[in-house]
Design a protein that fits this description.
alpha/beta, Rossmann fold, 5-stranded parallel beta sheet, 11 helices
Length: 248
């Protein structure tokens, strides 16, 4: 009798297992949708495209699009209209970039047109971010003013600062021979690496438990950063984000 009961219970258990609904797979994480608006400091080296590839290598997803025209300021983009048309397509983050904006007139222009764009960006359901770039190689004294200009613009619109210029300043402070420029303005390979790294860490922040030696090594492999430059670049990027410089 006991064997019959056990067999019956086993049969009922198997039937229940067959009738139970299959486990629902976890929904696939949606990519972070990012629109870049800028000039050749964004398009040279395809910073947006490299960011998307880097995110994928790190197990994250980014869908990017770029509206970049050489020598364009945000005012130029505003008047031309193509960037405004792109914004309404639907994004999570819209990244704004113009030149270093270290001079008073260009700084005022950066703040004013960041405000104008931010209104449209928020109406479209996205958040503004400011890609804070670096000054020309022959104007190292402009770093502080350029950093300050982008911070002001980000504060004016409640946006995210992507402190690439500050990361460059920190990296050059650690090694003045580091080749970040390919000409007097644009980024060489290490400069592009540092830009991508800084933007990624600002938009995809890693928790303290995640950010260990293995995580750093993984980032370096994804960007093909040589071992002798890995610590310098990662330190410059993370400190620019976590420990902003106090400017005079």
């Amino acid at each position: 009798m006991r064997r019959v009961i056990l067999a019956l219970l086993a049969g009922l258990g198997a039937l229940a297992a067959l009738q139970a609904p299959a486990a629902t797979p976890a929904p696939e994480a949606k990519p972070l949708r990012i629109l870049f608006i800028g000039n050749s400091l964004t398009s040279s080296g395809d910073i947006p495209g490299r960011l998307a590839k880097f995110a994928a290598a790190m197990g994250r997803k980014a869908a990017v699009e770029t509206v970049a025209v050489d020598n364009h300021s945000l005012e130029d983009h505003w008047r031309e209209g193509t960037a405004l048309e792109a914004i309404v397509k639907g994004w999570d983050i819209v990244v704004l970039q113009q030149g270093p904006s270290a001079q008073p007139d260009s700084r005022a222009q950066l703040v004013e047109y960041s405000r104008r764009f931010a209104r449209v960006i928020r109406e479209a359901g996205a958040k503004p971010a400011l890609y804070a770039v670096w000054p020309a190689q022959n104007r190292p004294g402009d770093f502080a003013a350029a950093i300050s200009a982008y911070r002001e613009a980000a504060a004016a619109v409640g946006g995210v600062v992507l402190p690439v210029g500050e990361a460059w300043l920190r990296a050059l402070g650690a090694d003045k021979r580091l080749r970040l420029y390919t000409d007097t303005v644009h980024a060489a390979s290490f400069g592009q690496d540092l830009a991508v790294l800084t933007i990624y860490l600002a938009l995809f922040p890693a928790g303290h438990q995640e950010f260990d030696d293995a995580f750093v090594a993984r980032m370096a492999r994804a960007l093909e950063i040589p071992a002798d430059r890995r610590e310098l670049l990662v330190d410059a990027a993370t400190r620019a984000i976590d420990e902003p410089l106090k400017l005079q």
